[in-house]
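Collaborator request log, item 7. Partner lab (contact: R.S.) asked for a structural prediction of Lipase maturation factor to inform their binding assays.
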Amino acid sequence: MAASTGGELRRRLGGPAGDAPDRPQEPRAPPAPSLRPGSFWLTRLVLLRATAFIYLVAFLVAYHQNKALIGDRGLLPCKLYLENVKRHFKGRINMETLSYAPTLIWFLDWSSMDSILDAFALIGLAISAFVLVTGCANMILMAAVWTIYLSLINVGQIWYSFGWESQLLETGFLAVFLCPLWRLSRVARDTPPSLIVIWAYRWLVFRIMLGAGMIKIRGDRCWKDLTCMNYHYETQPVPNPVAYFMHRSPWWFHAFETLFNHFIELVVPFFVFLGRRMCLAHGILQILFQGATSAKL
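Returned to partner:
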């Protein structure tokens, strides 16, 4: 009876009946969260790589053009610009100076501005290429590449005063909070993206597209008359071969183009607040719109 009682006890403890009593099992680490729907792990991977690609193009352009535009012998030397800013604030580099022109160049030697501009562009190029190729990123890398690009924009003067520069900075700033603090991992299962950041991205897309539509409605009357596309293709700065045939389209097609533009920019942005299916429809329509716009411009 004692033997059977011991065997039953061992079976309850999880060991075989004929063996010696089991040793206490070591505690197991909890399993990593699964890549389940709604965790936005794929969203993070796509956003980080897409942002890195845009950074890569931006820094590549900066490397080839900055010396001619804002270098020591550029059209608008950034050294002269910073000296004027410093003179305006009585020759001191304080919080007012930094808030007026936030750039790391304040703390560097200005004897060879071309070298500084090249170094910034190459460092940003290396970081963005690493994130694009590997898909791995953390807050340190994304903050570094954002700070470098911010430093270039704030000395770029009119050459960096276009809307897409500020949009890249806004998108890049959100990307800083999209990834883990230290760990370099393509998926990072234990640190899922914050819903606050996801909604911040949605708000950014909503604000940019709705603003683009509103400024058209408040601008030239041709957007209300649906006649803007009648003249667009012959006045665009860099037309492609498709633009010639688009320009020769009938008037009703140009009116449809304008109406479709209003639909995409004034109606579709609200889809991001209407649930998952409408968000999916919003994404598909925006991708098709941007692709068609790129193909005919």
